[in-house]
Amino acid sequence: MKKTVNIALVGVGGQGILLASEVISRAAMLAGSDVKKSEVHGMAQRGGSVVSQVRIGEKVYSPLIPEGETDFLVSFELLESLRYADTLAPNGTALINTQVITPVTVSSGQQPWVEDIEARIEKAYPNRKLMDALKMAQDLGNVRTVNMIMTGALSKMLDIEESVWLQALSELVPAKHLEVNLKAFALGRGLE
Question: What is the pTM for the complete model shown?
Fold first, then answer.
């Protein structure tokens, strides 16, 4: 990859964002690219926002994506996609899981729910792909595979061979969970 590719994964603690960013990073390294990664997961264990940035290229100097230069925003949760709308490059692509995790501030009555979320997403992301990764994971019998469904969907957009992705998964996912994660990855990769 000559040009540096900037990927931001966003969502809520417990959705497997950090494993997904590890798989993406490992696949890129196995493919011969330089990779830098950063993550922020302050209140992740309490359902807080989680962000991981992965930068892939011939030579990457910083793990942080400059503002407005994210090529691929991979959002594991609907509302979190809006929180990071300003980070996407003008020609960037958003992959958005339609799953909704109600924030504590909303469920406690401190803030109202965003009523026009679909319209806001449509306006913020002209180039977007929405998917119900939670439903797909439920159909697989393991809701914890949403992350690999999202990773599989992203993998089709990156110039990395499928066999390299499978090697990265095999290296990072514990053996007892590998089969279902490979199935989830294949489901995401097969999305049109």
Answer: 0.92
* Tokens linked to 72: 């691929």
* Neighbour count for residue 95 (Cβ, 10 Å): 25
Residues 133, 95: Cα–Cα separation, whole Å:
11
3-state class of 49 per DSSP? strand
CB 126 within 8 A of CB 85: no
The Cα 49–Cα 54 span in angstroms is: 17
Domains detected in the chain:
5-189 (3.40.920.10)
- Angle at the Cα of 46 (from 154 to 96), degrees rounded to 5? 20
Looking at 3-145, list the stretches that DSSP marks H as alpha helix, in order from N- to C-terminal side: 17-30, 78-83, 104-107, 117-124, 133-140
The confidence band for 110, taking pLDDT boundaries of 50, 70 and 90, is confident
pLDDT in tens, 146-186: 999 999 999 999 999 999 999 999 999 999 999 999 999 99
d(CA 179, CA 172): 12
CB 70 within 8 A of CB 7: yes
Give the C-alpha separation, 161 to 116, whole Å: 39
